[in-house]
Amino acid sequence: MDKNQKILAGLAATFIIYIAVSILPLINYFKPKSYFTVNGSKFSETDLEKDKPALIAKLKKEYVEKLKNSFEEFAFSKIMEMEAKEKKVSEDDLIKNVTKDYNPTDAEITAIFEQFKSQIGKKTLEEVKPDIIGYLKKLKEQEFYGEISKKYKIEYFMESIPTVRQKVEVKNNPSLGPENAKVTIVEFSDFQCPWCQKSQGTTKQLRELYKDKIRWVFRDYYIVHPQAKFIHVAANCAIPQNKYWELFTLLFENANGLDNAGINILAKKVGLDMLKFEACTSNPPQSIEQDINADIADGKALGVNGTPAFFINGIVVEGAAPLANFQKIIDEELSK
Fold it and tell me: How many domains does the chain divide into?
């Protein structure tokens, strides 16, 4: 064996040893750490993701958000450590020095007292003065935190979780806007849910802002609130008389504490034929109950476990989210 052959043989042997040493950690890295078995058959996160991609995406997003919060806290502790080292003091003294020579003026104290007067109640300025001074010193500390955060370059590189788009049926549910609109928003909501009630202002703004560019569909998804089922049945009983959206608005505005008599008052207010309406609510057609049950079943299948839940062309937005959250997705969808 010549010299080159010996070198090649040595390299080959080294490579084999490297593979042998590395293969087990690689296998363990890609091996699912969490799984379950049924009659010996293993099912892992990969299988769940194939069946419920939106659920896995949601869990990953929540994890990344919490991880980012932890990173921010950890990063702050690091820059505090670096700043203290640079100033040659302890971290405690670093904070103490921020407010050591700071004495709020009477004008600053009075301004805070006036600002929070409604919350302070009957207490006098002298009684709450120590608390106000403490509050102003905390504000001074926050200013310091802001300043050193700018001094040290912090960048976060977080995993990007792909958006999952689900197929959401409209079926024969009430809707606003043209059927051929480029964006369809399906809302799963409960008339008695406080967050659903809160979100109605936002949804109204969106409809006014985008007008015929979006189609809005409402699907019944009541949970455990009193009178919830009856209220949803009553709303559906207004459909044959073309008064659904009028009653819809009043139900969301007045749903808390509503009884049957209260619902009838709202029905009269929107001009419903009360004989037909009361006949419908007292003995609901099977089709109404089937539609409501289908809404709830479809919502559960889509991963809805709280209300309200909105699907913008199949992309979920959960809870009483701010207007900007909806606009971001709607604008992206309209731009395609």
Answer: 2
